Recover the amino acids of this structure.
């Protein structure tokens, strides 16, 4: 099993450009999450999904959109990138059913917006 | 005030020392997650606790629900333990009627173990 994978690993954008980050998991997990990690701050939830075809906002959703057309994939989109979106983005997944279910994290995507 | 506070923020130790990292929280239900983030950035789960104590190799995690406090201990520390250790608390539910919860993360403790 590959676990949770993220594409790309690194990206540099100019202000106003758009891009999509792809998260894929092969563990048949129902729940998937997108987090951002910034220096001096804890991981913060951007959006999440509790199943195929469903998405919801987390703590810091502004400027991002998501889609979950297939159970194994969770896409994070930036329509018009801003320097404030420079961050490391982590995707995670977990089984549904218990708050004790382990979250599995992807390796992260380092995004720089100039 | 942050909902999850970790101390210390930075910790430097000599190989072989006993390490303690603390986590206090003001929200949450009854479970806590300890994570390890290596210098390369990858995040792995170490423990999930809802009560008492858990042990895995040289790592021990304890939680006191009444005091809203958890500790992560590393015995006989080694340079390969150098990493950021992150505490996260299971807080309010995602969706009404749902059984899963979101994690509220601490800022992390940077541990450096010197040989």
């Amino acid at each position: 099993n590959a676990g949770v994978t993220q594409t790309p690993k690194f990206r540099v954008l100019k202000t106003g450009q758009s891009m999509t980050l792809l998260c894929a998991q092969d563990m048949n997990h129902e729940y998937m999450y997108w987090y951002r990690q910034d220096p001096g701050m804890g991981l913060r939830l951007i959006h999440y999904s509790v199943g195929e075809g469903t998405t919801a906002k987390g703590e810091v959703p502004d400027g991002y959109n998501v889609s979950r057309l297939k159970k194994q994939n969770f896409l994070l989109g930036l329509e018009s990138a801003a320097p404030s979106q420079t961050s490391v983005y982590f995707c995670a997944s977990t089984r549904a059913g218990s708050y004790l279910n382990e979250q599995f994290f992807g390796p992260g995507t380092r995004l720089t917006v100039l | 005030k942050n909902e999850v506070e970790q101390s210390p923020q930075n910790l430097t130790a000599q190989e072989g020392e006993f390490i303690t990292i603390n986590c206090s929280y003001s929200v949450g239900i009854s479970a806590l997650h300890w994570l390890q983030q290596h210098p390369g950035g990858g995040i792995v789960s170490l423990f999930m606790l809802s009560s008492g104590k858990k042990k895995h190799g040289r790592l021990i995690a304890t939680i006191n629900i009444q005091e809203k406090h958890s500790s992560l201990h590393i015995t006989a520390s080694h340079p390969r333990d150098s990493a950021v250790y992150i505490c996260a608390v299971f807080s309010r539910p995602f969706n009404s009627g749902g059984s899963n919860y979101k994690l509220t993360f601490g800022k992390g403790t940077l541990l450096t173990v010197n040989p």
Summary: Chain B has no helices and eleven strands. Chain B touches chain A through 29 residues (CB under 8 Å). The first strand of chain B starts at residue 4 and ends at 7.
